[in-house]
Amino acid sequence: MKAIWNGKVIAESNESIQFDNNHYFPASSLKKEYFKKSPATTVCPWKGTANYYDIVVGDKTNEGAAWYYASPSPKAALIEGRVAFWKGVTVSA
Predict the structure, then answer these.
(1) Distance between CA 77 and CA 71 in Å, rounded?
(2) Interatomic CA distance for residues 45 and 42, integer angstroms
(3) Torsion sign over Cα 67, 70, 72, 76
(4) Strands 60-68 and 82-85
(5) Residue percentage of the chain with pLDDT more than 90
(6) Across-strand partners of 18?
(7) How far apart are alpha carbons 41 and 81 in whole angstroms?
(8) Number of domains the chain contains
(9) Amino acid 89: pLDDT
(10) 62 strand-pairing partners
(11) What value, to the nearest 5°, has the Cα angle with vertex 87 and ends 31 and 7?
(12) 3-state secondary structure the chain
């Protein structure tokens, strides 16, 4: 699977998993030069607190377009150490 935004592959892995209608990529598959930690967080009642990354490619920034659960609930333990995307990031095989 590949995650692409603004014409660049920002993550690529054969070990992504589908969970809760999203593809979660191993954190190690991220091309770190495109990711900047965001101070934003949200809370999912059953997964826990989500943290975000802004994606920066060239002179464009996609704020909060990647998220992860640093300490997911036991029901979502499968996604620990993984990152998912939205806000126009294309995920495909």
Answers:
(1) 8
(2) 10
(3) positive
(4) antiparallel
(5) 100
(6) 23
(7) 16
(8) 1
(9) 98
(10) 55
(11) 50
(12) CEEEECCEEEEECCCCEEECCEEEEEHHHECHHHEEEEEEEEEECCCEEEEEEEEEECCEEEEEEEEECCCCCHHHHHHCCEEEECCCCEEEC
* Bridge partners, 35 (sequence order): 55
pTM of the complete model beyond 0.70: yes
- The CATH number of whichever domain residue 28 belongs to comes to 2.170.150.40
Instruction: Calculate mean pLDDT across residues 72-92.
Output: 97
Q: Any idea what the Cα angle at residue 25 is, between residues 46 and 83, rounded to 5°? A: 50
The mean pLDDT of 7-22, rounded to a whole number, is 97
Confidence (pLDDT) at 28:
98
Q: What is the pLDDT of residue 62?
A: 98
In terms of residue numbers, what domain contains 12?
A: 2-92
- One-letter amino acid identity for 67? W
Do 83 and 25 touch, CB atoms closer than 8 A? yes
How many angstroms separate the CA atoms of 29 and 45, rounded? 27
